[in-house]
Amino acid sequence: MSDRPIIRVQHVVKSFGKVTAVNDVSFDVRAGELFAFLGPNGAGKTTTIKMLTTLLRPTTGSLELDGLDVTTHPMDVRKRFGVVFQDPSLDSDLTAWENMDIHGVLYHVPRQVRRERCEVLLRMFELWERRDDLVKTFSGGMKRRLEIARGLLHTPKVLFLDEPTLGLDPQSRNQMWTHVSSLNQTERVTVFLTTHYMDEADRVADRIAVIDHGRIVATGSSAELKAQTGTDSLEAAFLALTGTTIRDESATAADQMRQVARVWRR
Amino acid sequence: MAVIFVLWLREIKKYLRSRVQIVASLGGPLMYLGVLGFGLGPVFRRAGEGSYLQFMAPGVIGMAVLFTAMFSGIAMLWDRQFGFLKETLVAPVPRLAIMIGRTLGGATVAVLQGALIFVVTLIAGFRPVSVLAVPLAFLVIVLIAVVFAALATAIGSTIKEMQGFQMVMNFLVMPIFFLSGAIYPLQGLPRVLAALTRIDPLTYGVDGVRGLLIGSAYFGVGLDLAVLFGVGVLFVAAGAWRFSRIEA
Hints:
The structure holds 2 protein chains of 2 kinds.
Chain A: E1 7-16, E2 19-29, E3 34-38, H1 45-52, E4 60-65, E5 68-69, H2 74-80, E6 81-84, H3 96-106, H4 111-124, H5 140-152, E7 158-162, H6 170-186, E8 190-195, H7 198-204, E9 207-212, E10 215-220, H8 222-229, H9 234-242, H10 253-265
Parallel strand pairs in A: 3-8, 3-9, 6-7, 7-8
Antiparallel strand pairs in A: 1-2, 1-4, 4-5, 9-10
Helix pairs in contact in A: 3-4, 3-5, 4-5, 8-9
Chain B: H1 2-17, H2 19-39, H3 41-46, H4 52-81, H5 84-89, H6 95-124, H7 133-158, H8 162-178, H9 191-198, H10 201-214, H11 221-244
Helix pairs in contact in B: 1-6, 2-4, 2-6, 4-6, 4-7, 4-8, 4-10, 6-7, 6-11, 7-10, 7-11, 10-11
């Protein structure tokens, strides 16, 4: 593990017209760690991921991934990360294998390596038997697993997971975390994830950044956050830090639509 | 190159798998061919214009190509809403390659659909004047497909909502079809209508196909090809420009 952080975000601001979604955010992610962005919906988690994944440009501030400036070297940066967005990005009219294969071509993975990696990953995520089935016949959990498998195909250094368990049932959710924790070890990939579930951040993350209203309120391991606030649960620590609890009622209309859409698409 | 190919192949695979869509998309052209072709046939003949079916078949082929190519724009909105677009946008490949792969895929599907309708018109009794001209006619069909697939890409990159595409269908695609002279001759039109038909790229497409398949072009096949080629270049450039500016 090198000393240089794999992700370095400094004083990043992102405004959409009059709305400031991300307001002077700075943090480092160390290579190999499992880093969680914890905060309610609308806190700026997804916007930050979109900036780190070159889909949005920051209004001001700088983002670095593996020592490369994200804004000025988007192509080199893209080769180094895999991403699973909040909304599914699979082609449901293609098979699992075809989705993987197209990804491999898009990331210039040589044919032989592509075949091997596809097999290893599909087996790891327990999708090998279903590789020739159309993705539209998959359950929500299977689709999410396939997306993660696909995101790892080009052996990225960082894997971004935006709300990976949103809309999954408790069983798939547990399974998802087992997979994520183990691949963090087997693939030696840095995992950057966002979640608004306290228990999940508490259980899996090495370090957590608490974000609210576009600002990072605190950063540290679960134990550090509890110690810092003198509380005994992450939930209480979050309350002490932000003055609010995360409740599902605070979900925006768009989030709710998304959840409904996911249920229907299964 | 591999990227363009794999995205092109994706469109073809999706097309061949959507049997229902293929059959459904035959409906419109078949109705025009059947109802208008046979319904207006006697009037057309009495007006001394010969067989309406002969006249109309190239127009119906043009219609099928137009509609299928424009449909690839909807496919892009679909991809945007259900995510696959994002997968390609974060990949370390130039946007131009993605745009070309998609557009060529959409155009190829449109040509396949045009070929299917061509076969249907043959069954209905359409007889091209020369078998040798058929490959050339397909060159025109390919150009029509590229022109409108590129236009669809430009529009699909610009609008975000599905409802927007409904507008495009009603206020762009239908007029393009009706103004193209696909179902009526271009001779002796009122001046305004004549002017409108001349700015419609499909007019030159249908005219070119007609010129090659039944030997009567209004503008002449050379001009038709030149216009289609020029508009094609323009629309591909516009599509590439709009596509490069998509923000997710």
